[in-house]
Hints:
- Helix content is 36%, strand content 12%.
- Helix 3 packs across helix 6.
- It folds into two domains: 2-77, Beta-grasp domain (Ubiquitin-like (UB roll)), CATH 3.10.20.30; 85-159, [2Fe-2S]-binding domain (DNA polymerase, domain 1).
- The chain is α+β, with helices and mostly antiparallel strands.
- The longest helix is centred in the C-terminal third of the chain and has 16 residues, at 138-153.
- The mean pLDDT is 91.
- The structure holds FE2/S2 (inorganic) cluster (2 copies).
Amino acid sequence: MQIDLTVNGNQTFIDVEPRLLLVHALRDSLNLTGTHVGCDTSSCGACTVLLDGVSVKSCTVFAVQASGHEVTTIEGIGTADSLHPMQEAFWTAHGLQCGYCTTGMIVSAVDLLKRNPDPSDDEIRAGLEGNLCRCTGYENIVKAVRAAGAAMRAGEARHSVNELMPIHPPTVEPPPSGEAIIPQQLQEAKV
Ligand code: FES
Ligand code: FES
C-alpha cells in the first residue's frame, strides 16, 4: 500500500507492506541509514526518531501508522555544514565511542531539551533511560546534553564540521618506506 510520509521536511510517497516497521522504511526505502537497529525489541533506543516532534522508537511503529505525519531523523536534525548544538556537544564532550547508539541518543536528547531546556543531571539520566549505550559512555553523554542545553539557552551560532576539525599539519617527516616510526622517548631510552 502507498503511504505519505513527510521526512525531514520532504513529502514522499512509498509503497510498503502493512507489516513494515518505520525504521526499515526509513533505512531501506529512503536510505536514511543514520537511524539504527540495535535490538528490534524496543529496548535500546538506537532507532529513535521524532514523529510529529515527539521521540519514538521507530522499531515500535509501523510505517503505515506514520502516514500523513512528519518524521525527523538524525539527518534532519543537523548537517555537516550546520551541526545541531546537540551534535556539536556530543563531539566536543566526547559523548560517543563506537557511535552506534549516538544518533538515537541525540534525537532523544533534542526532544528532552525541547520539553526541559535546563535539565539537571538526574533529569538528563531519566530522560535518556530508554537509550542504551553498550560502550557505557554515559558520563560524557550527560555532559554533552548539559553543554548543548547551555549553548541553546545562550543562542550560540551553529558550526560546521570543518570548523570543529582543526587541521593538524604533520610535524615530522615520514620515514623512508619500510622504517617504523619510533617515538622520541623510545629512541632516547634505547641509547
Ligand atoms: S532497535 Fe528500536 S529500540 Fe532497539
Ligand atoms: S557509543 Fe557505542 S553503543 Fe554507545
